[in-house]
Write a structure and sequence with these properties.
It is a single chain. The protein is built from 1 helix and 4 strands; from the N terminus they run αββββ. The strands form 2 sheets. The chain has a two-stranded antiparallel sheet. A two-stranded antiparallel ribbon has the order 3-4. A hairpin with a 5-residue loop joins strand 1 and strand 2.
Length: about 60
């Protein structure tokens, strides 16, 4: 019997700074030296100054 990959994967968490099914994705620029959620990549406390988006991987541009 073949089980779907999701059921066979140990999905208990990733080391700090990584997320995703196999922990192969890097977190964005999270505020307060926090790491992102290991399942979604979302920064729970927001982004460092200069970054935006749920995953804090979009650089803000200053307007003059």
């Amino acid at each position: 019997m073949n089980l779907p990959l999701l059921l066979m994967t140990n999905y208990s968490g990733c080391e700090n700074g990584r997320y995703g099914l196999t922990c192969g994705l890097l977190c964005g620029h999270c505020k307060e030296s926090q790491t992102c959620f290991y399942t979604t990549g979302i920064c729970p406390h927001g982004c460092l100054d200069g970054y935006t988006g749920g995953k804090c991987n979009t650089r803000k541009y200053e307007t003059h």
